[in-house]
């Protein structure tokens, strides 16, 4: 099997990844068609097509300013698009449940309520009773074996703990898709490593379609099933390789020849794009 | 003595030092004793004025009443106006100059105008104090609302919070800055109240008391009234500080 497949907007290539489980367990297959986005005179995306497979972890990687975060935020509906269509199994973003984890956890959590209440917060708007909200947070915390004092306020916690709370808050709604915007870039190295493994565990447990924007190639490859490599703006998909490395991945993975081959491949493409 | 006890007693060093210095100056007759009575005499005057005879207690109460009315009025006007202005940056920018101008104008400069508008009655002093305080409150609330972190509001929106709930996020975000405004406003209101009691034909109040005692050359009485003004200002500040720490526990963190 050739793990590196050309698959931008290629129906045949993504066909192999179609989820055949009952619809209850199905994760959205994101289709982006004819996406166009301009900032003033600058065209970031022009008639951009993309398919994101169900239940996969996709890392978006590319040169600075190519619009990685912009792409994810447009998919998440945070930034309006100028033209085109983004659908999740035919539904719009407003019709599905999704989770979003911001880069800056300090500005994303609410400091006036405890970590526990922060996690339960989105359930308030889903007409879930208080007892059920607590039960769901409790179940989530148990599932991931979180050993944190969630009665603390966010500002009483470390950066990593706060980001973990953010991730739990995004997960508590049982999202069909999870967006992560450079979630670990504000953390120290030790915490980053720990959080990567936590994130991998979350993904393995839930199988939620996950999209991450990362500046760190190691991280992008370590976490991903596939890596979306973008060109300089106006962005197009340069390559969309599969990371065929078994999970759970750990420190040994970093020495795995396949891992390093893909990393090398991505780096090569990245450098080509930077030089252009 | 343990370190902890030392730390706890540290704030009193300045107090004891000041009183000791004051006493020393009186004993050594460095300053004319008519101008500077001894600490003992002064505190006796405070005690007598507040708890025995004399008008100090009455004037103190009147000033507290009016200052509270002024702060209440300034808060009731300042917070809603500040929020309205802060919600739309365009609206705020269009009135920013006016607010900044009046905020920078010494409020005592409008004393004569307020006298013309509202007469010499008690309520005029409340209006003047409230006017000065409300500008400080409006300014701070508006900035608090404008600087509410966009990420938090966006996060609330993503999680499905309806518009009124997003507004609640903005208001909570602005609370620390609002409290700064309230503290500034309260201090300013007290300054204006004491000043207007001195200058605007008052019949009671701490400002009048200070002024009268000075006219009568009753120095212990004057110092006692000054001390009470200080006590009032300090208590107000402390009250706001404690309220803030209780309800805006996340401020500055």
Question: If you had to describe this structure to a student in words, what would you say it looks like?
Answer:
By secondary structure, chain A is α/β, with parallel strands linked by helices. Chain A is 34% helix and 20% strand. Chain A contains 9 helices and 9 strands. In chain A, strand 8 (226-230) and strand 9 form a beta hairpin. By secondary structure, chain B is mainly α. In chain B, helix 2 packs across helix 10 (219-247) and helix 8 (163-199) packs antiparallel against helix 10 (219-247). The radius of gyration of chain B is 22 Å and the shape is globular. In chain B, 34% of the residues are buried. Chain A binds chain B through residues 76, 78, 98, 100, 102, 104, 107-108, 110-112, 121-122, 125-126, 153, 155, 169, 173, and chain B through 149, 151-152, 154-155, 158-162, 165, 169, 172, 249-250, 253.
Describe the secondary structure blueprint for this structure:
The complex is a heterodimer of chains A (about 280) and B (about 250).
Chain A: H1 11-15, E1 30-39, E2 42-52, E3 57-61, H2 68-75, E4 83-88, E5 98-101, H3 105-108, H4 115-120, H5 130-143, H6 159-171, E6 177-181, H7 189-206, E7 209-213, H8 217-223, E8 226-230, E9 237-239, H9 257-275
Parallel strand pairs in A: 3-7, 3-8, 5-6, 6-7
Antiparallel strand pairs in A: 1-2, 1-4, 8-9
Chain B: H1 3-27, H2 39-51, H3 56-87, H4 89-104, H5 111-118, H6 122-146, H7 150-158, H8 163-199, H9 206-215, H10 219-247
